[in-house]
What we know:
Helix content is 16%, strand content 32%. By secondary structure, the protein is of the alpha+beta class. The strands form three sheets. Strands 3, 4, 7 and 10 form a four-stranded mixed β-sheet that branches. A four-stranded antiparallel β-sheet has the order 6-5-8-9, with no helix packed on it.
Amino acid sequence: xxxxxxxxxxxxxxxxxxxxxxxxxxxxxxxxxxxxxxxxxxxxxxxxxxxxxxxxxxxxxxxxxxxxxxxxxxxxxxxxxxxxxxxxxxxxxxxxxxxxxxxxxxxxxxxxxxxxxxxxxxxxxxxxxxxxxxxxxxxxxxxxxxxxxxxxxx
Length: 154
């Protein structure tokens, strides 16, 4: 006859210790399967972007393939961007496009913006990083794929 110490309690349900151990052993492989994500060879990409020494508060970065790979991008927040491996880049060479505009001086409602969008916002980043980009990086399988862009200008 099992003693009281041979039982576990889970949410008020008593389970024998061997059954609890069996359940735990069955659960471990499932946890292992959920943590591995097939990235199809894509690599995580991260970095920091500053303009004249100050982190860019808000913007975007896009990596376009040079020679037929997968493109990807990310938002820039407080000078940093991250592209996780699931949405990352396959090894290869990429042209980089960075955009950032000055923040609005006043808070406007979405309805006001729809009715009166106003003039286009001024691009803060020099053209050599966006409309006339000549900046390239190479993503490698070995990594680390951290690309920082300390931008000077404007």
